[in-house]
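U., I forgot to send this yesterday:
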Amino acid sequence: FILATGDAFFYPQHLDTYWYDIPDPKYIMMNPNAQHIVFPHYVRILETMQGAILSLIRDEPLPSVSWDKEETETGAFIEAWMDPEPEEIRCSRAETLNTTRRDFRLLQGFPEPSLQPVWWNWTDVQEVANGHYLYEEENLEDGRWTGFFMQGRWTGPDENRMFLTTSVQTTPDDFPGEPCFDADSCYGELA
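Result:
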């Protein structure tokens, strides 16, 4: 799956609704600070795809990435296992702009979009053991949401860089409104 953190159609946290029903092997490449068209990540995407295709053709193993995500009393964490150990491991994180929308998009509004500068920044993760990593976030005191995911980088066949990620964890893992089930009650309450 090649996804974008600012996607207006496939919000990054929606992957959890179907991810565990898809049989293995499966991989995620989450691209920070990008919309649905995943610009400016085309080179990263092509390198990762080329590395994966060459690995399959040559019957070489692809990196393995698995993770657990959980909420705690005061926040949330992702614990990840990557084999082989990546050459680089880091976490990308962002905070929503307000407490009324759990919205990580770069643009909002239709048909006249406006900039919503939710920016994902890289930070370090804790190495628990070789290939075992942990990243934790505390809930923001002002009630906004934080999203985060881990990314590993490997060198694949023919020196292609390969980027694979976990899914996005959001904390707190709640929504600003009650669930809605019809057009009248859901209008304007999707984020």
